Amino acid sequence: MKGQGTHLQVYNTDNGLPQNSVKDIIKDKYGFIWLTTENGIVRYDGSSFLIYKNFPLNSQRFTHFYGNVENDSIFTTGEYEKNILLHDKFPKITPIKNHSTVVYRNKKKYLLSCSHYSFASTGIGFFMNVANGRYFLLDNVLIYSDSRSKREQRLNIKPLYKNASTIFALNDLLFHVDPITKNIITIKDGKIIGFFKNSLLSDHKTRIFWSQINHQLFAMNRGTIYICQYQDNQLKLSKLITLQDVKDENFMSIYFDKKYKKLYLGSSIDGLRILSFQDFTTVKRPSPNHESVFYSILPYSDSSVITTFGEVYSHNGLLENKNFKNSSPYFLDREKNGNIIYLHEDHITVYSKTSGTEKIVQTKNLLLKDFFISNHQYFALFKDIKNPDGPEFNGVLAIYKDQTFNAVEKKIFFKSEPTKFIRLDQEYILVGTVKCLYKISLKTNKIYKLTGNKELSVRNIIKTKDGNIWITTLGQGFYLLKNDHIIKMPYDSDGNISSSHTLLEDVKGFFWISTNNGLYKVLETELLKYAQNKKHRIYYYRFSKDAGFNTNEFNGGSNIAGNQLKNGEFVLPSLNGLIFFDPLKIKSFYPENFYIERALVDNKEKNFKEKIYLSQESNRLDLFIDVPYYSNLDNVVIEAKLSDFPNAKWENIGKDRKFSVSNLGYGHHTFMVRMLVSDDGKFIYKKIKIIIPPYFYQTFWFKIFLTGLFCLFIYFLVKWRISFLQKKNHELEEIVNSRTKILSDTVEKLEVTKGKLHKEIEQQKKLIGTITHDITTPVKFIALTAKEILDQENFDEKRAGKILNSIYKSSDQLYNFTMTLKEYADIYSHHILDKTELYSLFQLIDEKKILFDEIAEKNNTLIQNNVDESLQLWISKNILSAIVHNLIDNSVKFTKNGTITIENSIEKENIILKITDAGIGMDEKKIEYYTRLQDNIENEKLLLQKYGMGLHLVLQLLQMIGGKIIFTKNEPQGTSFKLILSNKKNE
């Protein structure tokens, strides 16, 4: 069988079918192809056959399909009164009910007719179902029964003529071929609605193939198959294919898949033929004496190319021949004026396209590898062949003034054989060789090696519309050149793209890459994403021989390895013909859906939905991924993983579409599958739950039960042990108690004594510090006054009296102060806070004022008591007295010729006592230190040697009465001490 632009696949009992007679063909709503045979029903998914033939029937012979594909209810007839229903991708026996193939009318039996296969012989009645009624067909009459009006219409039409059917259907229309008048009668709802002529349909040698469920009608005449469509009130026939060396009568069923452009032919003896209509056109040389091996090709017109043989081809074949003699197949180019340059071993020939004349140009031991014209300059890339036996080839980049290749402007030499070059910009040329990639400066003649220490056999250099530079290589893949760095693109799954020849870019942004094993298609945007992120996955779409090539091996190694014509067609040279195709008409077929519903559990088939239940005795599980897909299987990308396993990775599913696991432990496992469905890397996902019940001793409740038993055992064991020990301990306790009572009494007394001693020591420490601090100022004053007397040789009686009076008063004050030492002792030795008394704050301040008046007067300082005379306090008098004493003492010491003011105010429940002086003032470091110390007095380190004892004592005493102090530096000088006191009675 030969058919231009088609690819044939034949299936029979040798490669998948259970029997060689294919009665009917249909495609269900899920995309699976179904066949009926005389040995079962077959499901085909594009790669393999699934056979169902073990139905509990007396025979596994099946005939035609009927029913409704859209409703997922497809039937086929088996044993009498038992049908097979194809539903949800699986067949099963079903009662006839409303889908009976037998009806009775006027006690006459009628059999269902829904396709050409139904009519067998005369003497049998048939019925045909349509949307609004039913037709009854006898030998000589056609009767229509309307299901809406219940009326019957009799038509004078003979469905059979010479034991052959003259009636067929397309959807709800019936067509009758009048064997006498050759008219084709159209019938709808029991009425004749038209006549038309069609010599092919009325030809007695034409076989009509029709199927109501498929909504398809075909005519076959002398090996040619036509598809019929109802247009303009008649059937119009379109030729699909002409078959050769095959008898028409051998065919029993036809189905055409419009989406995939595949024609399915069922034979009575030869099994199944699948014809694929191809979008690629392969053109070969017409002479059988010449091999159709092509390399360099060049656009010749808007729809044709010229080869190195001088032959001009379009997708229709050879157009003309210029007869280029003894030309090299690896070089072909064009001058600026359109003349064609082709190559010989020792010279260049320039062919004039207008006149047809040729001119020979000698290149003096230089073999031209590539050529282009830029800015009225002629750039040529040569291989130096003066020393062909040398260890290395030498490359020459030459720039000429004209096409004579004589007037040389510049030559640049480099090692290794050159292959391809392009101009990057006004200064730089990019040159590829069999070993590396160079960037050459035309200004400085400097050569930059872009591949580093890596050898790279460059095949082609292509600059795409967006300005990106792509490099194809021999055996090392292809690369993107970015900022003088090459970025390697990933391989396809089979590694075929490692030897890529060229790439052509279409208007949708796809690259078409020819290789030594197939043609690959990929989005440029996906490649650029990979260049940015190496984790981005690239999926190439592969076209192979079944797409329309004579061979999968394309050719490169020439200066031009592919062309884009002005009519939009791409042309690629191959080892067996030129490949023409329009990239915008070539579809990428991806699977639309997949199904995980079948499994083998220890080699036993099992069907399931969403969940599969296994036992722990199961050793092996094979999960099948069913994918209805009828194009190149290389483009089906399915990956799977068990997601509940740590570090689970997506694994590629092979062409058998099976995922196997062994010895899964009990529990719930999730099997995830994803499938590629678009050129831009989009996947669809599905998951299946694998449930393996545990044994009773592996269940959670059993473990709880065991744990409970163990705990109970431990409980009783411990309880018995405790009881035993308690008896022993009771005996020992009586002995020990008598002895330990004496010891505990002694220890208790020692602890009390220890506490008392500790408190006394702490009291003594603090008392000594307090005495030392508080008597320092009066004693120092007396000493200074006495010194003044001793230093004065002459002084009058009045002066002496004044000094002695000061000494007297200070001594008296010191005496009075020592009388208060008992108060300090009481502060630290008794719980003063537990005892409360009401007293006047004014009187307390006044007592302290009198104590320091003489000292202040000496410094010419005035102490003012502005406290409210009516204010009564519950605060511990002794503690507050000690606090005020220290603060006034500090103010008196550091204030000269100033005023010390003591005043009060009330804020909410607190008494505010403020002491303000005009002394030298505290510096910021001291204020910060005391403020921080007040907030954390238990943990902060006390700087006694640096800052003294006074304010440390104040902070400790404030803590005892729950008060706070705020230090403020006055302007222009002096310090304010703001005491915040809680005036509550301590119960």
Automatic annotation (TrEMBL):
The entry's keywords: Kinase, Membrane, Phosphoprotein, Transferase, Transmembrane, Transmembrane helix
Example GO molecular function = phosphorelay sensor kinase activity
Residue ranges annotated as transmembrane are 700-718
Please name the Pfam families in this protein's record. HATPase_c, Reg_prop
Class of enzymatic activity (EC top level): transferase
Domain Histidine kinase intervals: 770-985
Family matches, as InterPro entries: HATPase_C_sf (IPR036890), HATPase_dom (IPR003594), His_kinase_dom (IPR005467), HisK_dim/P_dom (IPR003661), HisK_dim/P_sf (IPR036097), Ig-like_fold (IPR013783), Reg_prop (IPR011110), WD40/YVTN_repeat-like_dom_sf (IPR015943)
Q: Gene3D superfamilies in the record, alphabetically? A: Histidine kinase-like ATPase, C-terminal domain, Immunoglobulins, YVTN repeat-like/Quinoprotein amine dehydrogenase
What reaction(s) does this enzyme catalyze? Answer: ATP + protein L-histidine = ADP + protein N-phospho-L-histidine
EC number from the UniProt entry? 2.7.13.3
Name of this protein: histidine kinase
Species the sequence originates in: Chryseobacterium arachidis
